[in-house]
């Protein structure tokens, strides 16, 4: 990812490599959550968060996870 | 069944009502559900729900977690976009372990994203959260069936919309080396050394505070103005630099829902609001995204 500068062409933006952290903001913080017993992930939304919290705290101990659902 | 219900991949042109299974996939022909005690070896990963659409997913990026084009499983007036995935990787326990593996997580997330991006070239997909997994096709159909009202309303709301991400970073300048204009650096034991040091510290703190104030003003202006150009705004948690791997402190991480047709104007607006001459405040735009951050708008507040 590079800074947004004069490069305001939409196609160029779309083709940039997406930063993982931006992707995870959306794929773990957004997207439709299917609850109930329809999926395997009965409690997996939470599991994902817990796992990522663990993951993140292994990177940095006192930074809150950016992945909690902000919606 | 109409053409819209056909699979949209030339490689797997079976009809979705017959399950849309690609012909050449022998490993998926076994393990029907309902064998208690017998672990099934395949599960269904669901990327998105869409309306029936025509058109072919682009070859590039249109490959799912199994390396094949994702399948379109039709049920009523909805379509689930799925890939078979091995239970050995995606059943609850292995999935939990995998999610702690950043490389695995990254690859899965990127594949999910590529499928969604490919879908956006032919329709307005409703993306599901990462790692939404069903036991089998009938599970996917139940998912579509029971969530129908919610999916339909979200698909209507998000039809033709994209998401743009706008982030603001501040860069605190490092403590400046004494510049020539300032008092020539005295040696540590010279008179005034302590005062000079304090002055520099003070000047640095002022610079930092000013940078923070400027960033704050930029954030507020962006938020206010862009919210008016957008249908909805969501604030994501601020990103930690150690995760994003970039310098500067993230002070705004917002997502805006914008009609696709208004995207160009929106991008132009962001550009106009970006301070061009301020090294300490950076604005970063990402997108267009499928509207991941807006799949829940209009639904009751999560508790």
Automatic annotation (TrEMBL), chain A:
What Gene Ontology terms describe where this protein resides (cellular component)? gas vesicle; vesicle membrane
Q: Which InterPro entries match?
A: Gas-vesicle_GvpA-like, GvpA
Keywords associated with the record = Gas vesicle
Signal peptide range in chain numbering: none
Molecular function in Gene Ontology? structural molecule activity
UniProt cross-references to Pfam families, sorted A to Z: Gas_vesicle (PF00741)
Does this UniProt record's set of keywords contain Lyase?
no
**Family the entry assigns:** Belongs to the gas vesicle GvpA family.
PANTHER family documented for this protein: GAS VESICLE PROTEIN A1, GAS VESICLE STRUCTURAL PROTEIN 2-RELATED
Protein name (record): Gas vesicle protein
Q: Which organism is it from?
A: Streptomyces candidus
UniProtKB/TrEMBL annotation, chain B:
For bias type Polar residues, the affected ranges are 8-17
Q: Any one cellular component term from GO for this entry?
A: gas vesicle
Look up the record and give one Gene Ontology term from the biological process aspect: gas vesicle organization
Q: Where is the composition biased (Pro residues)?
A: 172-183
User: Which compartment or compartments is the protein found in?
Assistant: Gas vesicle
InterPro entries named among the record's database cross-references = GvpL/GvpF
Q: Which Pfam families match?
A: GvpL_GvpF
Tell me the protein's name.
Gas vesicle protein
Keyword set for this entry? Answer: Gas vesicle
Species the sequence originates in? Streptomyces candidus
Give the UniProt family note.
Answer: Belongs to the gas vesicle GvpF/GvpL family.
Transmembrane intervals: none
Annotated Low complexity bias: 184-193
